[in-house]
Amino acid sequence: MSEQAEGVRMSRPVGRVDERASVKIAARGVNLWYGDKQALFSVDLDIPDNHVTAMIGPSGCGKSTFLRCLNRMNDTIDSARVQGDIRLDGQDIYAKSIDPVQLRARVGMVFQKPNPFPKSIYENVAYGPRIHGIAAGKKALDEIVVTSLKKAGLWDEVKDRLDEPGTGLSGGQQQRLCIARAIAVNPEVILMDEPCSALDPIATDRIEQLILELKENYCIAIVTHSMSQAARVSQRTAFFHLGVLVEMGDTADIFTNPQDPRTQDYITGRFG
Amino acid sequence: MASTEVKTGIHTSPEAARRLARRYRQEAFFQFMGLIAIVLALSALAWLMASIFGTGLSAFRQHEVQITASLDPELIDPERTGDPEVMRRGDYRTILQRAIYDRFPEAADDRKLRLQLMEVYSVAGGTGFLRDFVLDNPGRVGDTVTLWIPASDDVDQMLKGKFDLDVPQELRKVTDVQIAWVRELQASGELRASFNKILFLNTDSRDPELAGVAAAVVGSFYALLVTFVLSFPMGVAAAIYLEEFAPKNRFTDFIEVNINNLAAVPSIVFGLLGLAVFLNFFGLPRSAPLVGGMVLALMTLPTIIIATRASLKAVPPSIREGALGVGASKLQSIYHHVLPLAMPGILTGTIIGMAQALGETAPLLMIGMVAFVTQIPESITTPASALPVQVFLWSDSPERAWEERTSAAIIILLGFLTLMNLVAVLLRSRFERRW
Question: Domain with B287 in it: what CATH number?
Answer without folding.
Answer: 1.10.3720.10
